[in-house]
Here is the input.
Amino acid sequence: MSNIALFDMDGTIADYDSQLRSDLAQIRSPDDAIIGQMHGVDLPDYIENRIDLIKTQKGWWANLPPILAGLDLMRCCVDIGFSIHILTQGPKRTKSAWTEKCEWCEKFVTPIAPDYGISVTREGEGRKKGEGKGLHYGRVFVDDYAPYMQAWLDHRPRGLGLMPMSHESLRFSPRQVLRYQPGLRYGNSLGTVENHLAKFREQHPDLLQALEHAYSRGDGEE
Here is the structure.
């Protein structure tokens, strides 16, 4: 029960950003501004409307490409002995995403952790961002979004946070958080899953050591 590793989906194991950028580019007119940052910024209404249109397409969430490094990290957690629990935000305006996220996990998480659990969270009106994720117990939390990580650390100060390397994660530096190289996506990768997992282990010895410690520490140990 206590040795749980929590994994976010979008931007951590499912490539939400790249797919959304690709889909937006296909319907971009020559006069449209090029969108850089899509998180934590006010986008033009017409872009928001296009994003809503894209994400409500049947099968969009279920068919997001996986992120290899995130799944490699999940395999490492399973090998150490952690139970895997998926912890993902449920879009308020796209209810079909809730079901399709579960379908995605059946395809990509089940081969790694057949007994995984999943929680789809949603903060109520006026609630602090990330509060839904922050309430979930785990010794390890893997997420790409700093506000969600901070909400979890507020409840789990002895927990281990893991974030893919990005401009955002580099600006967020609690002592409990380590970063890993986001690596290749399946779509442009070469070789076997085993080869990529070996490379991931080779590149992140400190991270693996921290996971081993998080798994083996006693409840009263820092």
